[in-house]
Inverse folding.
């Protein structure tokens, strides 16, 4: 699934969040101006097609390289 489209995530983006975050299942900061995008997409270099690749986007932006996955908890 990685590398198809950037996956929009519910987490807020903070550049250095992981330097002091919990090790197990960090949920992201409570506030931020951008949301996390993961996984790269077909228009980027091949090395970006992995879940550890993290970008950001504003919550109101959209593009043909962005997507999301529906999850049922």
């Amino acid at each position: 699934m990685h590398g198809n489209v950037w996956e929009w995530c519910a987490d807020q983006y903070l550049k250095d969040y992981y330097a002091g975050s919990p090790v197990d299942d960090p949920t992201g900061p409570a506030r931020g101006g951008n949301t996390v995008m993961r996984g790269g997409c077909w228009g980027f270099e091949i090395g970006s097609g992995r879940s550890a690749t993290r970008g950001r986007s504003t919550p109101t932006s959209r593009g043909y390289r962005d997507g999301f996955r529906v999850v049922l908890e």
Q: What stands out?
A: The first strand starts at residue 6 and ends at 12. Residues 11 and 27 are 6 Å apart (CA to CA). The mean pLDDT is 83.
